[in-house]
């Protein structure tokens, strides 16, 4: 003999119910999740673009970084010089693998589009073209 109602609880046992949410609550949760994912994706895209520019600059640098005692940065000397200070990053930026670029100096014969590319990628950095032994902020 087959039981007609196999999923019904035994008498005296409370009926098991799943969490129930209103449609408005579900839509709100989905919207918050979508906004959060969009923010993370946007920040990750910025970090990827910054990493590409930093890699491009570092290809034009000398291979040996020079650390300065007392500073939380590394400086690489060549046509391009970059000072990176990762102690100023938030935990989220560190999680994404970003770098805080304090300043960038370059030779005065660098093309303007290259200089603008670096300025656009690192708005927090001071960009200093140098030439004839004098630094001038650009």
At a glance:
With 138 residues, this protein is of the alpha+beta class. The protein contains three helices and six strands, in the order αβββαβαββ.
Explained architecture:
With 138 residues, the protein is of the alpha+beta class. Helix content is 38%, strand content 23%. The protein has three helices and six strands; from the N terminus they run H-E-E-E-H-E-H-E-E. A six-stranded mixed β-sheet has the order 1-2-3-4-5-6.
List the helices and strands and how they pair.
Elements: H1 23-58, E1 61-67, E2 74-78, E3 80-84, H2 91-96, E4 101-107, H3 112-121, E5 126-131, E6 134-135
Parallel strand pairs: 4-5
Antiparallel strand pairs: 1-2, 2-3, 3-4, 5-6
Shape: rod-shaped
Average pLDDT figure: 79
Q: Please count the beta strands (DSSP E, at least 2 residues each).
A: 6
Given as residue ranges, the uncertain stretches (5+ residues, pLDDT < 50) are 133-138
Distance between the termini: 89 Å
The oligomeric state of the chains shown is single chain
Q: Helix count, per DSSP?
A: 3
Q: Main β-sheet, in a few words?
A: 6 strands, mixed
How many structurally independent domains?
1
């Amino acid at each position: 003999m087959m039981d007609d109602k196999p999923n019904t609880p035994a008498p005296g046992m409370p009926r098991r119910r799943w969490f129930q949410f209103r449609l408005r609550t579900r839509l709100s949760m989905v919207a918050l999740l979508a906004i959060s994912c969009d923010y993370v994706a946007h920040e990750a895209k910025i970090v990827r673009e910054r990493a590409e520019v930093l890699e491009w600059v570092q290809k034009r640098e000398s291979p040996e970084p020079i650390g300065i005692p007392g500073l939380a940065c590394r400086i690489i000397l060549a046509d391009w010089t970059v000072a990176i200070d990762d102690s100023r990053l938030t935990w989220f930026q560190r999680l994404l693998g970003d770098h805080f670029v304090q300043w960038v100096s370059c030779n005065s014969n660098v093309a303007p589009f290259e200089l603008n590319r670096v300025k656009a990628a690192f708005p927090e950095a001071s960009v200093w073209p140098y030439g004839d032994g004098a630094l001038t902020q650009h």
